[in-house]
Design goal:
about 0% helix
């Protein structure tokens, strides 16, 4: 069992940077791939980024590639999402999630946090 709690979301201006954090609890956290998804009002959930348990392998959505960076600190049971050059279209609730394997498929993530709101104004 893995419990996830996100933080760091807030309102910012376009072009600003923001770092989201997701703290995990559970003995086997380090064995899980961690991912970030987001959901904007009226839209379906969207994959953002994922990182393997070792931190070596990452995947990004094309819409965030080059602007967002996912990382993890297994000693702190924490995964991060550094978001730079934010755009209004990045406005969404951001969720972190845990999966057994490196994947971009939402349905393969077993554990989810409650989400943190990011709002980007133009």
């Amino acid at each position: 069992q893995v419990q996830l709690v996100e933080s760091g979301g807030r309102s910012v201006q376009a072009g600003d940077s923001l770092r989201l954090s997701c703290v995990a609890s559970g003995r086997t956290y380090q064995h899980y791939t961690m991912g970030w998804f987001r959901q904007a009002p009226g839209k379906e959930s969207e994959f953002v980024a994922t990182i393997s348990w070792s931190g070596v392998n990452t995947r990004y959505a094309d819409s965030v590639k080059g602007r967002f960076t996912i990382s993890r600190d297994n000693a702190k049971n924490t995964v991060y999402l550094q978001m730079n050059s934010l755009k209004p279209e990045d406005t969404a609730i951001y969720y972190c999630a845990a999966a057994r394997d490196l994947t971009t498929t939402r349905g393969l993530y077993s554990y989810w946090g409650q989400g943190t709101q990011v709002t980007v104004s133009s």
